[in-house]
Design goal:
Blueprint: H1 2-24, E1 28-37, E2 48-52, E3 58-59, E4 65-72, E5 74-81, E6 88-94, E7 99-106, E8 120-123, E9 128-131, E10 135-140, E11 150-157, E12 163-169, E13 173-176, E14 184-192, E15 199-200, E16 204-208, E17 216-222, E18 225-231, E19 237-239, E20 247-253, E21 258-265, E22 268-274, E23 282-283, E24 301-302, E25 308-313, E26 316-321, E27 328-332, E28 338-344, E29 350-356, E30 363-369, E31 374-382, E32 386-391, E33 397-403, E34 417-423, E35 428-431, E36 440-447, E37 453-460, E38 468-473, E39 476-484, E40 488-492
Parallel strand pairs: 1-7, 9-16
Antiparallel strand pairs: 1-4, 2-3, 2-5, 5-6, 8-10, 10-13, 11-12, 11-14, 14-15, 14-16, 17-18, 17-40, 18-19, 20-21, 21-22, 22-23, 24-25, 25-26, 26-27, 28-29, 29-30, 30-31, 32-33, 33-34, 34-35, 36-37, 37-38, 38-39
Length: 493
């Protein structure tokens, strides 16, 4: 009996062992996958594929594919390894009679990958001149590892210091449009293979064509500063001064072939000159600056030959040579009023002055001789603001703007500023009929080169709206035309 029991116990244990082996034997599956370059997304051939726990070792085909068959079910770590790339591991779970998919994106090993060659700038050539305002930049660069390259082009305007960046370029060129005339540009190319640090080219420069017939000058606000612009009859515009400086009240002299203007120098304002393209800036005044009740309403004047300039300093008028020498006192107001504007006659015999109190009101306009003797009055004893002053080429007419409302306040606001002409022979004043809209002001008036028109600033009388430069024919009240938007302080030669 004991012998039978022993045989029964052994048989049960054997059957139990057989059942445990059947539970552990869960079957096999398949691992399939592909290996691609992380940057190029192209297949990578001959990549060594292994697993942990270990199974078969295989290599990818020409399309980057691999298959590991008859893999026992379970959790695995699959490794992709090839020289020149960083080793990559991907987890996967193999289940019975199923296919597990694995995709590797291999990164090139920086230790073996070489950086792109330094870009060679091709066109325009360095220091090229007379380039079109529509210019194509071209360059060349190669990569030792045939990596996909991307480029960044940096372009700097040598006048305004504005920087434009062209990012993520895939080609070896970029088309530039709407460049400024008479401007020097600096450009540089940076190339990246997505692996190494970007490589920079040298810096080249080129200069665009000279601005065609820039008869107009005016000022625009840019980044809080006044910037002087030149413009031609077609409306093309060119900034002449930097946006980082406050430069204003431009005045051109054709004989000197120069532009004079005001610019801030610390707490003072001085006269500077520059070439017609904005180059060769030179300071004229030094010991005695330009000063008045409000610098937005203070002006100066060339003589016709362009070798001297007159300007105000509160109640005094000074004359200075355009090279900064020969500073001379010309006139002082007899009643202590400030000189705000001055116009030197074409023949040099007389000077028109606009004077006012320290608030800009109680305005007088009168004419003095070049030696400082009072000749005659134009206006006096009128309330309201007066803005702009000019005389024509034969001294027969003087033009100015006056607020006929007579309104006065601390902000020097005008409510109804209109244009007037004074006849120096008859000593009479007549309004220029130009169909100005109610609620608007016409300011800062000047004669056109042919004396048949006037150019001026038109703006809403709210004191905060945009200013626009307009013109009108003196014999045609319907001829009002807008020339430039967002602009002021015009000059027309």
């Amino acid at each position: 009996m004991k012998y039978l029991k022993f045989i029964l116990v052994v048989l049960v244990a054997f059957l139990a062992a057989c059942n445990e082996e059947q539970i552990q034997d869960s079957g096999i599956g398949t691992i399939k996958g592909r290996v691609v370059d992380k940057v190029k997304f192209e297949p990578v051939e001959n990549v060594k594929i292994t697993t942990s726990p270990a199974t078969s070792t295989i290599f990818t085909d020409k399309d980057g594919y691999f298959v590991i068959a008859d893999v026992p079910t379970g959790e695995y770590s699959v490794q992709a390894l090839k020289e020149g790339f960083l080793a990559k591991f991907e987890p996967t779970n193999v289940t019975i009679n199923a296919v597990s998919q694995v995709v590797f994106e291999l990164e090139t090993s920086k230790s073996s990958n070489k950086a792109p060659e330094v870009p060679t700038l091709k066109t325009p050539l360095d220091l090229a001149i007379n380039q079109s305002i529509k210019t194509k930049l071209t360059w060349e660069s190669k990569d030792p590892d045939a990596d996909v390259l991307t480029y960044t082009v940096t372009l700097r305007n040598g006048v305004t210091d504005e920087i434009i960046t062209f990012d993520n370029l895939k080609t070896n060129s970029v088309d530039l449009a709407n460049l400024s005339y008479s401007t020097k540009y600096f450009w540089q190319v940076s190339v990246s293979d997505g692996i190494n640090k970007p490589v920079n080219s040298s810096v080249f420069s080129f200069t665009t064509l000279s601005f065609p017939n820039s008869r107009f000058l005016f000022v625009k606000k840019v980044n809080g500063n006044n910037v002087i612009y030149a413009a031609d009859d077609a409306g093309n515009q060119l900034p002449l001064t930097s946006t980082s400086l406050n430069s204003y009240r431009p005045r051109k002299n054709l004989q000197a072939n120069k532009i004079a203007f005001l610019s801030s120098d610390g707490s003072q304002n001085h006269i500077y000159t520059m070439n017609m393209d904005g180059t060769a800036v030179k300071k004229v005044t030094n010991s005695i600056p330009v000063a008045g009740f409000n610098m937005d309403h203070v002006g100066f004047s060339w003589n016709s030959s362009g070798n001297q300039i007159i300007y105000p300093n509160f109640d005094k008028l000074y004359r200075i040579n355009s090279d900064g020498t020969g500073l001379t006192s010309v006139f002082q107001t007899p009643n202590g009023k400030f000189i705000s504007e001055c116009v030197w006659s074409q023949d040099g015999s007389s000077i028109v002055l606009k004077v006012n109190n320290n608030l800009g009101y109680d305005v007088e306009i009168y004419v003095i001789s070049s030696s400082g003797v009072l000749l005659y009055n134009v206006i006096s004893n009128l309330s309201g603001a007066v803005s702009g002053l000019d005389s024509n080429v034969d001294n027969s007419r003087i033009v100015f703007s006056r607020d006929v409302s007579g309104f006065q306040n601390l902000e020097y606001r005008s409510l109804d500023a209109r244009l007037f002409i004074f006849n120096t022979s008859s000593k009479t004043t007549q309004e220029i009929l130009s169909k100005k809209l109610p609620g608007f002001n016409d300011l800062e008036v000047r004669f056109s080169p042919n004396q048949a028109e006037v150019i001026f600033v038109n703006t809403s009388n709210d004191g905060i709206s945009s200013r626009n430069i307009q013109k009108v024919n003196l014999s045609d009240s319907d001829s009002r035309t807008t020339l430039f938007l967002g602009a002021s302080m015009p000059d027309w030669k």
